[in-house]
Design brief:
It is built from six helices and five strands, in the order βαβαβαβαβαα. A five-stranded parallel β-sheet has the order 3-2-1-4-5, with helices on both faces. The radius of gyration is 22 Å and the shape is globular. The chain starts with a strand and ends in a 28-residue tail after the last helix.
Length: 183
């Protein structure tokens, strides 16, 4: 059985990889499909994201990376997939994903949506969170694969915060003048 795991993956996170690794044990083939969305301005090009995914999943022989545009259901039919795979982090994800699954079912009754709950340690993690942290100079080394972290730091012209820890300056409080001594 072939499963499609669609998304923007801008960038791929350890949460995405957790879902991919677990799915690779459940399905004969997992296709990580990068959606070409003209309405978004991504940090990485589609080609860069595909390469990030390929490097991150090269230890999984039944996983491949591909890209598509248009409807996910049409892409799944073209690839002869039977399953759309979606990760769930929180209840709020479920509502959106369930609506999308129902919509996809109206487009193709032959494709099922399978939800995988994210592992606890990644329940807060999204590509948007990673980009927000990196934009302000924070470390993302614990959120994405090492090669992806380096590319993110290059995009924001930062070195790894692990290599250049942030230092803070201690400010001595000003002495206040007692009220009776004010002129």
């Amino acid at each position: 059985m072939i499963a499609i795991y669609p998304g923007s993956f801008d960038p791929i996170t350890l949460g995405h990889l957790d879902i991919i690794q677990r799915a690779s044990r459940l399905f004969e083939q997992v296709i990580v499909a990068v959606l070409r969305n003209p309405n978004k301005t991504p940090l990485f090009s589609v080609e860069q994201r595909l390469e990030q995914i390929r490097v991150s999943t090269r230890h999984l022989p039944n996983v491949e990376a591909d890209s598509f545009d248009g409807l996910t259901v049409n892409y799944a039919q073209m690839r002869q997939a039977q399953v759309l795979l979606r990760g769930l982090r929180a209840v709020s994800d479920f509502e959106i994903e369930l609506q999308m699954a129902h919509t996809n079912k109206t487009l193709s009754t032959h494709i099922e949506t399978v939800f995988l709950a994210t592992s606890n340690e990644y329940s807060f993690l999204s590509s948007s969170v990673v980009k927000e942290i990196a934009r302000f100079g924070g470390s993302v080394d614990h959120l994405v694969p090492p090669h992806v972290a380096l590319e993110i730091y290059q995009c924001y012209n930062h070195n790894s915060p692990m290599l250049n820890p942030i230092t803070t300056e201690t400010v001595t409080p000003r002495k206040t003048i007692p009220k009776d001594r004010e002129a």
